[in-house]
Amino acid sequence: MLFMTSHSYETDIVSMLNAGTNDYIVQPVSAQILLACVETLLRHAYRQSVSGSREQFGDYTFDSALQPVQVRDTPASLTNKAFELALLLFRNLARPLSRSHIFERNWKQDVDIPSHTIDTLI
Fold first, then answer.
1. pLDDT tens across 68-112, in order?
2. Rounded to an integer, what distance in angstroms lies between the CA atom of residue 56 and that of residue 72?
């Protein structure tokens, strides 16, 4: 959460941070600073844990370089498309994704994919 205010009172800033905001901006602010703050928040929102090519989501570890998925340190074999779909869904936990968004992200060039393909992979 990003909080923008025209007040720079220390008590207001402390209250905002204690209430759960991730960052605060005192107006007026340049477009570059605002954009940098928003991009930072988006990076944190869409990535839970990144270390090189490995991403951790609870008990699930994805390695984009090697494409194995591990569930509680046990490897799980997935096809490339199933891996990409699972990683997309985990990166967007608690966010609804439309079928068209999933197709656009995972099947960029394959336009003649049957609509039940996602259902089959899930």
1. 788 988 888 888 888 888 888 888 887 888 877 787 777 766 556
2. 11
* Residue recorded with tokens 């605002």: 34
Tell me the residue type at 42.
L
CA 94 – CA 110 distance, rounded (Å): 27
Q: Contact, 54 vs 62, CB < 8 A?
A: yes
Alpha-carbon separation of residue 114 from 23, 85, 107, 110, 121 (angstroms): 43, 15, 11, 10, 12
DSSP bridge partners of 74: 71
- Which residues are CB-neighbours of 39 under 8 A, at least 6 positions away? none
N-term to C-term CA, the chain: 31
Helices of type H across the chain: 10-18, 31-46, 80-91, 99-106, 117-121
Model confidence at 49, in pLDDT bands (50, 70, 90)?
A: very low
Say if domain 50-121 classifies as CATH 1.10.10.10.
yes
- Domain range annotation of the chain: 2-46, 50-121
Alpha-carbon distance of 84 to 91, in angstroms, equals 10
Q: Record the pTM.
A: 0.51
